[in-house]
Write a structure and sequence with these properties.
heterodimer, A: 388 residues, alpha/beta, 7-stranded mixed sheet, 5-stranded mixed sheet, 38% helix, B: 390 residues, Rossmann fold, two-stranded antiparallel ribbon, 13 helices, 12 strands, 13% strand, globular, oxidoreductase (chain A), THDP-binding (chain A), EC 1.2.4.4 (chain A)
Chain lengths: 388, 390
């Protein structure tokens, strides 16, 4: 397979870490010195982490969709847990919602029989066909209809079958849902609307079953965009989205539906929105990711520690907008370096927003440093974007 | 009949150098053509419909038979290759719907235009590409019609605009192609196809309005195979009279399992458009034997009995074959020979599709923009660079 000359995810991670190290050498700023010397001693030569040319052994390996799901430690705080994969965690969250809230309805294409990813299995039998029903094939109609339900106060949980198909509904989301509260002076709102959609690459999806459109929606105030990394996170975040009084879009990494298995509490619980999670503490560099890429970054951090002696702090952003600026900035102040990695295309991807905000806020937050160049070198918010 | 067979067997046993087919033909007189009665189409806002009788020549009959059989076997071969994991990704097969693609092609000219959704392998063939190119595209090889980069859903040919993944999105495109036809003034029409599921998309109604307003030579065709993925038409549509959904656009409902019915209806619709009367809507009532795609077994939302019933009573290839044999347009043996030839062609194509190399990695970034000079595209990380040539 000629595509085998593409780097594996492992090498990408290594390369990413190397680039940061490479820039450290160039800048030579005060704080970097200790690290530079350590890395030079480690025998890091320029280009040793460069991709090798066409490895024939890599013929059948997944290159661009490689990851290993790493479950979190079981949570003791929310009562009895059960082994669930991502789609089962979603079903559990929806089950809890429909049980608690008599106005909650679930609708979308093929949700009645259980959904193409089994996320709504059993719900129609349990709650009735009035509450779990199919729509025709019309995304704009689905979301518009959902906004209408939400405006009357009922809880609308709409499913868009693949995030790639959300674009006919883009106008409804951006122009209707996001601005309802504002334009009516808080008289009306569609806060009880949640849109769920499978998201992200799956390996064989091609153009129209693999997209990550979070950046398109990040540009729109008035909605929230949330992306979980695991079943435990998914259930808590989805329940938060449903309860949140703002229209939310919940993207579910489809490659994790079956691949991610964890112990998930059976009872409902929430994970706060707009709070990023530091899932691993470190001192040398901050790595930010969301969704499936968090697991790639975890592997990268492990390799960086083993091969380069670099200590990485990993942050799962969780909510894309409104995003947790404080957690990320605090981390960057501590480590001095930032690497953001996402599946979506590089240009205009959400990493650019994060990086420009961090750069800007770093200069403003530290009152001692008045000059831009001075700030930049001393604090060295060293930014690198990695894109999957 | 028995006398004929006896004669044939005598000749065959005696034949030395002559190939069997020529011997058969020589020993039997076929009719040149035959007239058939076809089902009357339901009409919407039309005074008259297509004719209820049609003439099928032997030559045309053999051609249609061969084409339908080729599409059938090609789809079944694709099924096989998919299960062997030689074809990956998505694969939507159209076996059962052969009368639609072959019948539509029979009713139009090669200079007319056609656009459809993702169940497009049959149309790719009838619009002129070879089975080799189609199967090689499915397996993602250089010899494929989109150079291996498109796959099942993105096949294109001259005057065939694909091959489109997003449901319903191709319909406004079709209206646009029809506008170009009108503008160019060459008397061409555009066939714009979509399915029963897509018929509920808003943009289709937008396209209806534009086409009717501007009298575009657009034939909207709803290929109603009764199921939009797993949803039956009754559960998806308030009105399952898809031929009436164009409202102000005249429509006709056609038996999509009968190739002659499809051909006559297409001729009628094309004449309607070419005369400047504006768009027309055709609903082809057809059926697919496979599930929605290769990941759908196709039996969770319909019974095996239903599939079996359609296969035994309405199979388009069987219907044509019976007609031809019963009216002395061809013999069973002759058609069997065509089957054998088709099988061989498909086997060869599958061999090619399996053995052909994949497109070179360097081409991964080609044709993103039209650009001169070529520019660089970043890959999944900053060291991977592709040149984008276009």
């Amino acid at each position: 397979m000629e595509l085998s000359s593409l780097l594996t995810r492992r090498r990408v991670g290594m390369a990413a870490a190397a680039s940061t190290a490479g820039r450290l050498l160039r800048l030579g700023a005060v704080r970097a010195e200790g690290h530079c010397r350590r890395l030079r001693r480690a025998g890091l030569e320029r280009g040793f982490l460069q991709p090798t040319s066409a490895g024939k052994d890599a013929a059948q390996k997944r290159h661009v969709a490689h990851f290993t799901f790493q479950p979190d430690r079981e949570s003791q705080e929310h009562g009895q847990t059960q082994k669930m994969n991502l789609f089962q965690a979603v079903t559990s969250a929806l089950d809890n919602s429909l049980a608690k809230d008599p106005t909650a309805v679930i609708f979308g294409e093929d949700v009645a029989f259980g959904g193409v990813f089994r996320c709504t299995v059993g719900l129609r039998d349990k709650y009735g066909k009035d509450r779990v029903f199919n729509t025709p094939l019309c995304e704009q109609g689905i979301v518009g209809f959902g906004i209408g339900i939400a405006v009357t106060g009922a809880t609308a949980i709409a499913e868009i079958q693949f995030a790639d198909y959300i674009f006919p509904a883009f106008d409804q989301i951006v122009n209707e849902a996001a601005k309802y509260r504002y334009r009516s002076g808080d008289l009306f709102n569609c806060g009880s609307l949640t849109i769920r959609s499978p998201w992200g690459c799956v390996g064989h999806g091609g153009l129209y079953h693999s997209q990550c459109p979070e950046a398109f929606f990040a540009h729109c105030p008035g909605i929230k965009v949330v992306i979980p990394r695991s079943p435990f996170q998914a259930k808590g975040l989805l329940l938060s989205c449903i309860e949140d009084k703002n229209p939310c879009i919940f993207f579910e990494p489809k490659i994790l539906y079956r691949a991610a298995v964890e112990q998930v509490p059976v009872e409902p619980y929430t994970i706060p929105l707009s709070q990023a999670e530091v899932i691993q503490e470190g001192s040398d560099i901050t790595l930010v990711a969301w969704g499936t890429q968090v697991h790639v970054i975890r592997e990268v951090a492990l390799m960086a520690r083993e091969k380069l002696g670099v200590s990485c702090e990993i942050i799962d952003l969780r909510t894309i907008i409104p995003w947790d600026v404080d957690t990320v900035c605090k981390s960057v102040i501590k480590t001095g370096r930032l690497l953001i990695s996402h599946e979506a295309p590089l240009t205009g991807g959400f990493a650019s927003e994060i990086s420009s905000t961090v750069q800007m806020l770093h200069t403003r937050r530290n009152p001692i440093h008045f000059f831009w160049e001075d700030c930049y070198l001393k604090l060295f918010s060293h930014l690198y974007h990695g894109y999957g | 009949m028995r006398k004929m067979l006896a004669a044939v067997s005598r000749v065959l046993s005696g034949a030395a150098q002559k190939p069997a087919s020529r011997v058969l033909v020589a020993s039997r007189n076929f009719a040149n053509d035959a007239t058939f009665e076809i089902k009357k189409c339901d009409l919407h806002r039309l005074e008259e419909g297509p004719p209820v009788t049609t003439v099928l020549t032997r030559e045309d009959g053999l051609k249609y038979y061969r084409m339908m059989q080729t599409v059938r076997r090609m789809e079944l071969k694709a099924d096989q290759l998919y299960k062997q994991k030689i074809i990956r990704g998505f694969c939507h097969l159209c076996d059962g719907q052969e009368a639609c693609c072959v019948g539509l092609e029979a009713g139009i000219n090669p200079t007319d235009h056609l656009i459809t959704a993702y169940r497009a392998h049959g149309f790719t063939f009838t619009r002129g590409l070879s089975v080799r190119e189609i199967l090689a595209e499915l397996t993602g090889r250089r010899g494929g019609c989109a150079k291996g980069k498109g796959g099942s859903m993105h096949m294109y040919a001259k005057n065939f605009y694909g091959g489109n993944g997003i449901v319903g999105a191709q319909v406004p495109l079709g209206a646009g192609i029809a506008l170009a036809c009108k503008y160019n003034g060459k008397d061409e029409v555009c066939l714009t196809l979509y399915g029963d599921g897509a018929a509920n998309q808003g943009q289709i109604f937008e396209a209806y309005n534009m086409a009717a307003l501007w009298k575009l030579p657009c034939i909207f065709i709803c290929e109603n195979n009764r199921y939009g993925m797993g949803t039956s038409v009754e559960r998806a549509a308030a009105s399952t009279d898809y031929y009436k959904r164009g409202d102000f656009i005249p429509g006709l409902r056609v038996d999509g399992m009968d190739i002659l019915c499809v051909r006559e209806a297409t001729r009628f619709a094309a004449a309607h458009c070419r005369s400047g009367k504006g768009p027309i809507l055709m609903e082809l009532q057809t059926y697919r034997y496979h599930g929605h795609s290769m990941s759908d077994p196709g039996v969770s939302y319909r019974t095996r009995e239903e599939i079996q019933e359609v296969r035994s009573k309405s199979d388009p290839i069987m219907l044509l074959k019976d007609r031809m044999v019963n009216n002395n347009l061809a013999s069973v043996e002759e058609l069997k020979e065509i089957d054998v030839e088709v099988r061989k062609e498909i086997e060869d194509a599958a061999q090619f599709a399996t053995a052909d190399p994949e497109p070179p990695l360097e081409e991964l970034g080609y044709h993103i923009y039209s650009s001169d000079p070529p520019f660089e595209v970043r890959g999944a990380n900053q060291w991977i660079k592709f040149k984008s040539v276009s």
